[in-house]
Amino acid sequence: QVQLVESGGGLVQAGESLRLSCAASPRTFSDYRMGWYRQAPGKDREFVASISRNGDYAVYADSVKGRFIISRDNAKSTVYLQMNKMEPEDTATYYCRLHSTPDYWGRGTQVTVSS
User: Fold this and answer.
1) β-strand 10-13 against 109-114: which pairing, if any?
2) pLDDT exceeds cutoff 90 at 109
3) What is the CA radius of gyration of the chain?
């Protein structure tokens, strides 16, 4: 059974950085594209970034492009989200997604950015 566990959330001030991690259980982690999504209170869940199976291609939402970096370590079955120059608008619960049929989601980690 697939399990995704996010960690690394917390409270930071605007301009600071955080790194999120998502540890996945499947032994074939490298077979799957991975993504990060976020959901702010009262808003729909939105795409943040995704990364190809071998990590050589990434896609970002316009709102985080140039500030966030997604990466993965297939040997550790882990995907990361490095968040730099954070803004109050980045405040949300961040979720890890394993792209498959069906998709799998983690339970999320809370990120709060104070101004």
Assistant:
1) parallel
2) yes
3) 13
